[in-house]
């Protein structure tokens, strides 16, 4: 069994994911990745990296649902057993929590997925001719 050696062409996945999560360009880390709430810029304003060919699609939404569901479901069970609140109060509090957490996570997870695509050279990110 031989070890696969890293080449100069490899892009660091962890750093690209982290930069994307925080809304920064996965390539340089300085430019803003997002143009609005969920719209990815066509190019990085700092280094000129092209992002127009990203394909995040439904991935961020699926990850958001997965994370919010896994965080909120145990909390709802715990709050119901420990405090026995009125069902309307419980539903209201956790609906607001789910919406707030979803709105906070969605653009960050989209940036992270764009960072993964950039690091793995997916969907045209490996083409350095642009």
UniProtKB/TrEMBL annotation:
<dbReference type="InterPro" id="IPR009325">
    <property type="entry name" value="DUF983"/>
</dbReference>
<dbReference type="Pfam" id="PF06170">
    <property type="entry name" value="DUF983"/>
</dbReference>
<feature type="transmembrane region" description="Helical">
    <location>
        <begin position="61"/>
        <end position="81"/>
    </location>
</feature>
<keyword id="KW-1133">Transmembrane helix</keyword>
<protein>
    <submittedName>
        <fullName>Uncharacterized protein (DUF983 family)</fullName>
    </submittedName>
</protein>
<keyword id="KW-0812">Transmembrane</keyword>
<feature type="transmembrane region" description="Helical">
    <location>
        <begin position="87"/>
        <end position="106"/>
    </location>
</feature>
<keyword id="KW-0472">Membrane</keyword>
